[in-house]
Structures are given as structure tokens and as C-alpha cells.
Amino acid sequence: MSELHTPALRGAFVYGDRVKLTGPKGRLNTFTLEVDGEFHSHRGILRHDQIVGLPDASVVTNSSGEEYLALRPLLTDFVMSMPRGAAIVYPKDAAQIVSLADIFPGARVVEAGVGSGALSLHLLRAIGAEGELHSFERREEFAEIAQANAVAFSGSMPKNWTVRVGDLQESLPSALEDGSVDRVVLDMLAPWECVDVTANALAPGGVVICYVATVTQLSRTVEEFRRSGLFTHPQASETMVRGWHVEGLAVRPDHRMVAHTGFLVTARKLAPGTVLPSLKRRASKSDFSDEDMASWLPDMGAGEESETWTDEAVGVRSKSDKVLRKKVRSAQKIADQRMQDEPGA
């Protein structure tokens, strides 16, 4: 069998596997199977060796007779429960990114803003063993957490994943040759700052997709792509997922849903020297002037950009250095547990 990156494992449970237990009331617990390990709850004890050797999706009983369903976590389950240094890209958005950007097996992909590695794991799965993922992250702690999470999920560091600590604008030109990249994924505070370096890296027809949280970031990003003249007309969207309660005749939408998490902006690199035809549209109340843009987006007409676009200004909650160090240790512990019992480790 050829080596798989971020594999969907199957077969009997072994030590080192991650297990998702669903209890009598639907409560979920995720942990790594360890030699002599035990799962404790106020309802009793479940030894890890009771799970080892069982096929996936088996029912096990703890010391007090409570039944639990044992499953290997799916990628979606894993990213929602893994240690986080930064807010993750939710599975609903990661799936859209893979689809809208047409991430294909064998693609060379650049990712800026690794965060906790949730999107990286989806990209690695999409490009397969023949593809390349080049990730850039400004904060070393985030890079460490992301890499540890990748090891915890797959059992080893993916060989086709390169993580560089540094600024994309400064690092990308020397890391990869111009025109050699198929896709660029920007999950960062100010993706408009990277329009030129992205255009240089992408092959003609290549796709750039940006993930931004607020409408001001969305507007600023779209307008910069338009002003550059290097890309097709950008497309913007958001994805909302609403679950349904289905039980007998009680069929209704869930009271809670995963609504807005972020916007996606996509565009494609134009061939050198190409001038994009202007969009024909009727005059309307939505027409705007440069003065309008300056009042809406200060750094496009007045003011200092460094003062306008900050994490605090767009509502991003940042963790303290102490919390980040704790997250690094937590992620590394899970990765170490995963590797200790990995065959051949």
C-alpha cells in the first residue's frame, strides 16, 4: 500500500489511535489509546485495552455497565477537538475552499496563515501524496501547534508539507519560483497586501482564494484585486449550515446553527499582458466615487493602514503568550502519544 498523508484509517483499533467515544446522553470524548490507559467518568472506568482490537464503530461497556460507541474520529471530528492556538477554519468553509479553489491531487499549493492547522489538513488530503503544500505562518507558536496536530492526526509529519515561519510577502519570492504555483489560499488579516506577490507566484489561470471575517475586510480585498488588473473579477460568498432535527413526525430545523464564520473571495490569475474587459452594468444607486471608498476604507484614501487594520479592529481575539505555550504543549503531547505506538516508530 502506498503511503497516505492524513489518512482515513480503518481496521481494528490499536494503541496510538485517536478514539471518539459517544456516551449514553450523546456526550463526546476524544482521547488517544495508551498502554495501561483508562478513561474515567463519574459513571465508571473504561480501560483502553477493552477498545484495542475491536473493529471501528464498536460498542464497549465501562465498569458500571454504561455503553459507549467507539469510533475513529473523522477529519471533521479531529479538527473540531484538536488543540487550538488560533481560531480554526470550520469544516464547512474548508470544504468550500477545496471546491471553489479546485484543489486537485498533485497541485502545488501555497497557504498563508496556518493557525492551528485545520485548513492545512484538508489541503493535504486534497492534494494527495504527489502534491505540495507550502505554508507560511508569522507566529512560531502557531506553526508548532499546527505541525503537532498534523502528526497527531496522521502519525507522522507529512513529507509533502513545508512550513515556514515568516511573512508571505518577504518569504514567498525566494521560496518558490514565479509562475510555479497552482493555488494560493490566504487566511490572514490583510490579504490585499499580498496581491502582487500572489500574482507573481501563480501560473496563468491559477486560483487565489481568501478567507476573511468581516465585511470591511471583504470589501478591501475585492477592491484591491480589481485595482491590480492582474486577476479576473473576484467572486465573494459565505456558507451557512443549518442542521435538522428528524425524529418520527418531529421534523424541524435545529434551534442552533453554524451561521457566519467568514467570507470567501476567489479570483484567477490573468495571462501576462491581458487586459480584462470591463463589466457592463446599468448606472444605479450603488455607484461610488473615490471619496466614497476613502470614507468606507480609510487606508484606500487616507489614514495609516497599520492603524486601520489590526486584530482588535476586526474583532479577532488573540491569546496570550502563556496560553499559546500551553496549547503548544497540549498539541505536542497528543502528537507524542500518536507516534509512540505507531508501527515502526
Would you report the number of β strands? Answer: 15
What count of helical segments does DSSP give?
10
User: What is the succession of H and E elements?
Assistant: EEEEEEHHEHEHEHEHEHEEEEHHH
Any idea what the CATH architecture of the largest domain is? Answer: 3-Layer(aba) Sandwich
CATH level 1 name of the largest domain: Alpha Beta
CATH superfamily of the largest domain: Vaccinia Virus protein VP39
Rg estimate, integer Å: 23 Å
Largest sheet: 7 strands, mixed
Shape: globular
For the termini, the CA-CA separation is 18 Å
SS-based structural class?
A: alpha/beta
Taking all residues together, what is the mean pLDDT? 87
Q: Which residues sit in consecutive blocks of at least 5 with pLDDT less than 50?
A: 1-8
Domain module tally? 2
Helix content: 25-40%
Strand content: 15-25%
State the CATH topology of the largest domain: Rossmann fold
Strand order of the largest sheet: 9-8-7-10-11-15-12
Descriptive account of the structure:
The protein is an alpha/beta fold and 345 residues long. It has two domains: 18-73, Vcp-like ATPase, Chain A, domain 2 (Roll); 78-273, Rossmann fold, CATH 3.40.50.150. The chain contains ten helices and 15 strands. It has helices at residues 75-81, 91-100, 118-127, 140-154, 168-175, 195-201, 215-228, 290-296, 305-308, 321-340, and strands at residues 18-22, 28-32, 38-41, 44-47, 58-61, 67-71, 108-112, 132-137, 161-165, 181-187, 202-212, 235-238, 244-247, 250-253, 263-268. The protein has a seven-stranded mixed beta sheet with strand order 9-8-7-10-11-15-12, sandwiched between helices. Strands 2-1-6-5 form a four-stranded antiparallel beta sheet. β3 and β4 (44-47) form a beta hairpin. α4 (140-154) runs parallel beside α10. It is globular and about 70 Å long. It starts with 17 loop residues before the first strand and ends in a 5-residue tail after the last helix. Residues 1-8 have low confidence and may be disordered.
